Amino acid sequence: MQKSLNNTYTARTTTEDVIKDINLTGKIVIITGGASGLGLETTKTLARAGAKVVVPARNISKARETLEEIPNVILYPKEMDLSKRDTIKSFVNWFQKQFDKLDILINCAGIMALSSLDRDEFGNELQISVNYLGHYHLIKDLIPQLKKANGARVINLSSRGHWFGPLNFEDPNFKNTPYDKWVAYGQAKTAVALLSVAIDNLYKTFKIRSFSVHPGSIVTNLSSNLTNEEMASMGAITSSGVRGFDSYDDDRKTIAEGAATIVWCATSSDLDELGAQYCENSNIASLALSEIDQTGVKPWAVDKELAIKLWNETDTLFH
Fold first, then answer.
1. pLDDT tens-digit profile of 81-131?
2. Global pTM?
3. What angle do CA 88, 157, 191 make, to 5 degrees?
4. Pick from 133, 89, 128, 91: which is nearest to 111 by CA?
5. Which positions are annotated as active-site residues?
6. Confidence of residue 222 (pLDDT cuts 50, 70, 90)
7. Looking at the domain covering 15-220+255-317, what would its CATH class be?
8. Listing from the earlier edge strand, what are the strands of the sheet with 28-32?
9. Residue 217 contacts by C-beta under 8 Å, 6 or more apart in sequence?
10. Which helix (H) or strand (E) holds 57?
11. Domain residues of the chain, as ranges?
12. How many other β-carbons are positioned within 10 Å of the β-carbon of residue 39?
């Protein structure tokens, strides 16, 4: 687990570098969050490589404006909100009528750092509902189509936010615990990473492999809930006073650099015999075992026993 590969990719690697010489003609792809930010960059990249890309969205009119000029992209014509279970079911039913298989499922949609505690219609804390629970149900419902691909990949967008802490199995919905927006975000992204481990272990015999991704620090609409003061404290306000970075490093990236790891996990032949890995910088990340580590994945986010426990208990932990 978590042994880096001997490739030449770096933090500066872009989606264009990763997709070079890869032909995805005949592949069917779903990308949640595929109409903005990292998801949009991923949509463009895979569609240009020949894949047929299906994008479900919460805001249909906005997504249509963004996607209408991109060839090989199909926008699901109704709302799909990951916090609303019936909209996920409706999307899956529609997809299953349109397509017999699913080669690549990329779960990019997410929310971050809601300032106050909010819940979905079932009472689940909203960050874990959107980032984890909605994708859990989407993946489960699409397993038949993933199996038919005879070599599918599931990519889940985690984050170094998982460093904020492990999943609280005793109170994941903050019913008895004081709400903290970063703790909530962190456990949701831990759950997403564990979801990838569970999927891979449960379904690799059906040639379904799964990976989770830390794309890096990228300024997108994901940060819309943060104030300019909070962004400035993270170094994410430029010298001219706009949201973004004046310079880039191993973690601060452009959108094309951030989406590169997503595209690499979805398409690289280097990963054909691998799975259940947490990836960053278009490579498999190392384990972050010490307090001085600046990169990598915490053990609690790739623990197989915790992953299977979460998979088995999700329907009782949440509603």
1. 999 999 999 999 999 999 999 999 999 999 988 889 999 999 999 999 999
2. 0.94
3. 80
4. 128
5. 185
6. low
7. alpha beta
8. 73-79, 52-57, 28-32, 104-107, 152-157, 208-213, 277-280, 283-284
9. 160, 234, 236, 245, 251, 252, 253
10. strand 52-57
11. 15-220+255-317
12. 25
